[in-house]
Amino acid sequence: MNNTLMMIVVERDHEFDVFEALEKVGVKAFTRLQGTGTGVWQMSSREVDPKKAILLTVIPEEKREEVFAALKSNAKLDEPGRGIAFSLPVEIGLGVGIPLGRE
Question: How far apart are CA 96 and CA 40, in angstroms?
């Protein structure tokens, strides 16, 4: 089974939307980090909280499109200023076999 690392960066105000989106598609394990940053366009067009939530989760590759669809519909990541999400292939790792989506 091939795995994918999903990385999601959002303003802290929107992180619970991401949590709900991930939960709806059965992703129950993720790591949350704190970060800061703004886009150049954000600095000039509106007040932006530079504090970000960075969420990392490893999922089966087959689930990737479902996760992106949930992030688009539930967390509105396709709207400007809401955040970004991307995936990277996981070739090898320790702990990758941790059950995803199981109680």
Answer: 36
